[in-house]
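Tokens as discussed.
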């Protein structure tokens, strides 16, 4: 801010505005960041200042991605990539970061093939320039894309590569994220013991890192493991503890409530099961997570039908179908 007050030349002012935009994004002040980025772009010429233009467009894409506006994010990131290619900007580190972010935008737009191709390009660049963090993010992106495509074994292999790199550079936040994802994929693939081992490792690391949210999220997987092992009492205790530790509006709280509902159902405590399932479905509806709301509604409908409550089952089946 002080530098801007000294009326620097346009190019320098654009650089200062970019740094301020980065700080605003880190603080969650996205509207202010958008204003900084727009002003900076208005001060420079894309041909003469291609590196600065690409960095600003990259920030704009990241900001849109944080707002879940993935199509607009992809457009900004494509502009950043094209600016670097058109003006022959040689900065492998920046380009690999742009490609990782672009791959993520494509994946969230369900453009799996383009996501995989973009992540692969990012990995090649990051590996060649020894950018371990970006390479790890690339492996993580590939893993998620493979998971989306149903390739669980390949996803696990790429998660493990990402985990190895994040462990080497001691990036605890990403390491925890990969551990949680890896535990989830193991569980969904039917590898219950592997899921338990990875989830317990995630809980221990989260606890030692002072990250209660990730600890609770990993405990939800342990609750699911307990339920899969026919231990509804244990699952209920773990899931309730995790649910209390999560923010009321946290999307992950719905996962905890889902396990609470399933455990109560197994124990024959149907009113308690109903309350938990309905809270989970309501929460996901409030935050606009339709895919997960549909999945939980379908699961709940199946349990209602098994109890003989056909009318309620049809209601939640309709909800699962998006009606």
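Sequence:
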């Amino acid at each position: 801010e002080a530098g801007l007050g000294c009326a620097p030349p346009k190019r320098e002012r654009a650089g200062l505005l970019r740094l301020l935009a980065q700080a605003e994004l880190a603080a969650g002040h996205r509207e202010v960041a958008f204003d900084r980025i727009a002003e900076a772009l208005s001060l420079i010429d894309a041909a003469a200042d291609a590196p600065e233009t690409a960095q600003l467009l990259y920030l704009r894409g990241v900001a849109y991605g944080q707002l879940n506006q993935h199509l607009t994010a992809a457009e900004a990131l494509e502009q950043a990539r094209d600016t670097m290619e058109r003006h022959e900007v040689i900065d492998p580190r920046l380009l690999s970061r742009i490609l990782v972010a672009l791959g993520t935008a494509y994946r969230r737009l369900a453009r799996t093939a383009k996501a995989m191709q973009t992540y692969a390009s990012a990995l090649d660049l990051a590996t060649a320039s020894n950018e371990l963090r970006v390479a790890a993010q690339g492996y993580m992106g590939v893993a998620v894309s493979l998971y989306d495509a149903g390739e669980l074994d390949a996803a696990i292999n790429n998660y493990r590569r990402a985990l190895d790199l994040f462990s080497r550079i001691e990036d605890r936040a990403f390491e925890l994220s990969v551990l949680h994802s890896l535990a989830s994929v193991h569980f969904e693939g039917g590898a219950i013991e592997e899921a338990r081992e990875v989830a317990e490792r995630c809980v221990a690391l989260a606890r030692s890192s002072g990250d209660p949210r990730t600890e609770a999220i990993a405990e939800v997987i342990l609750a699911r493991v307990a339920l899969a092992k026919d231990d509804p009492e244990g699952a209920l205790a773990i899931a309730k503890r995790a649910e209390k530790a999560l923010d009321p509006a946290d999307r992950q709280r719905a996962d905890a409530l889902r396990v609470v509902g399933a455990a109560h159902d197994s124990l024959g405590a149907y009113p308690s099961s109903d309350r938990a399932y309905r809270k989970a479905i309501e929460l996901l509806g409030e935050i606009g997570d339709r895919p997960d709301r549909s999945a939980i509604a379908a699961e709940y409908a199946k349990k209602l039908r098994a109890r003989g409550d056909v009318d309620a089952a049809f209601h939640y089946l309709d909800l699962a179908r998006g009606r």
